[in-house]
Structures are given as structure tokens and as C-alpha cells.
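Holo prediction. Input below; ligand is magnesium ion.
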Amino acid sequence: MNKTIAVIRGDGISPEIVAETIGVLDTVAARFGHTFTYQEAPMGGNAIDRFGVPLPEESLKTCLASDSVLLGAVGGPKWDDQPPENRPERGLLKLRAAMGLYTNVRPARMFADLSAACPLRADIAAKGIDFVVVRELIGGLYFGEHRFDRLDGQERATDVCAYSEGEIRRVARVAFEMARKRRRRVTSVDKANVLATSRLWRRTVTALAEEYPDVELLHMYVDNAAMQIVRDPSQFDVIVTENLFGDILSDEASQITGSIGMIPSSSMGDGSRGLYEPIHGSAPDIAGQDKANPIGTILSAAMMLRYSFDRAAEADAVEAAVDAVLAAGVRCGDIWQEGCRLVGCREMGRLIRERI
Ligand code: IPM
Ligand code: MG
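Structure of the complex:
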């Protein structure tokens, strides 16, 4: 297999975790006889510094011409004063939209060896956490009009939330298909007691469910879902929801598994090309100190192997190597516990590579 991977090295700790992940991909390539070619695609704060914009045209072209895209994280306080349309985050949103990545998949799985890091009560954690948040990624409030104007002598702001049936159906379909490969339960999260977009969401998902009689469909209001995720996460298999609700619930879901530093994500559209990134941020406070946990990004590369390149064995090998390192008691600072061996980003990467 010959694949071109666009690499967004990003800001803060991102270049460190991306470097370890490329090392892992190279190890996979050597062991399984593949060739990965990497193309740099600067994005985020570093791109603002060098090119004046968060997503240079060249970078977008590189991503669109690649077989898949690997990203660490972008942003940081250094760029907080940028005008809204030139913030690092805007580069990411533009990239998601330009690549047509309407489905964002964020697994929330508790690693057996990390159950001590779970902030939930032991009897709740003991029931297990293994669900997936499927988040709509290029619609809703994020992509509606954002406007400031004046009304009655005061400043006023407006954000528009819109969804079409098609936008809802295509992401819901991904959730139903995924549930078929898991425990066959979809929980659709909305705010249909208040919002028009949520009413359409619920109606559309319910209609689509007729094509999936083997999958159980439940509807839940987002406030209740936020509560149920900490009350009894074992009830969830696949959660499907709109962009903003998914942003919020996926952070909550990742934290209850123990560490946000461990959770990968994939963003995909209609084709096989995806964007793979950890769900954590750029952690500027520990940047350049070899302290970051590269596992979220390494597991994102495993998702790339599985979903974009259709290589389950290679993905399994990476995930098994991560499990083996954790089982051996090796930890980065974010997941360190008494009696474990504390390692930095580079050593973590090396130990994972050694086990592939
Ligand atoms: C995420 C992030 C982004 C989002 C930000 C950085 C724009 O929080 O990927 O969840 O809100 O989608
Ligand atoms: Mg977020």
C-alpha cells in the first residue's frame, strides 16, 4: 500500500505528539510493507505567524490531494487577540468544511489499566464505559451566520442554527451503520422540546430508523444526556448528535474515561479521506518539555489505518501496542498513578513502536 498523508504539525505540544505518531506509522509501514509519504500542511497559530492566515491555500490543497490527514492540535493564548475570522480554530473549521467532513467519531472507551483514573464512583465505572459519540461536524451553529448589530441602543449578537434533512440523514446513517457493528443501540440527542432544528433532527432520525429495524433507537434531550453520561455511561453504545451538542458531550465523555489525552477521533465525509486528530487541545503550558501524552494522536493514526486505509490488522497492531505499554505500567504525566513508571512523550512513542 502506497499512501500520501498530509501532516498538520500544529501548535503547542502538537509537533511533539505528531512526531511520535509519524514514527509509529513508519514502524507500521516497515512491518507490513507499506509506504507512507508525508506532506507538510501548516495550519493554526504557526501558520498565522508564517503566512498571516490560519489555513493557507497551499495547505488546503495539500490536504485535498492527500489520501488522509493527520493533525495534532491548533491554537493557544498567543493568538487570542486575532480577529475572529483569523483565529487558529477558524482554520480547522474551514478545513473540515472544505474537505466535506460531516461525521466526527469520538470513542469514549475506558482502558482497563486506567480504571483508577476514572473520576466516576467505582460501582459506576465497574459497569464499563464503551460508547462512541458521532457528532455532526459542518452544520448547525458553527456554520450559521455570526453577526453583531445594534438594537435599542445596545450591542446585540446573533448566531444562526440551521439544519437540512439531508445534513441530518447522512450523519445519522453513519451512526446506524456503526451501531450494527457494535451493540445495536443508537441514542439520538437533541433539544426537541425547544428548538426547531432539533424537532427536524428527531423526525429525520426516526424516519431513517425504519431502514434499521435491527438497531434500537432512543431519543434523549441534551441536558438529560449530559446527566446520564455521568450517572450511568454503560447505557450508551452510539450517541448521534448535532455539532455543538457533540462538541460538549464528547469532552464530557472523554473525561470520564480517565484522560482526555488518550482519546482519538476521526472526521470523514463521503469518500475514504479523513482527518484524524486527538480530541485534546494544544496544551501550551507543557509545550516543548517532552511531557505530552502522544497516545491520543497515535490512536488517531490507528483509526486512519482502519477507516481510511481499510487495514484492520495494522490498526489492531497499534492499539495492541498501546494496551501493552499501559499494561506494563508505563504512563505519561496526565495518566500517571502511584507505582507506575513516568515517561515523557518521546519515550512513550519509542515504547509503543517497540511493541508493534
Ligand atoms: C473540537 C474543538 C473545536 C470545535 C474548536 C477548536 C473549534 O473544540 O474539535 O472539539 O469546537 O469543534
Ligand atoms: Mg471541542
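The CA atoms of residues 103 and 136 lie 5 Å apart. That is the main takeaway for now.
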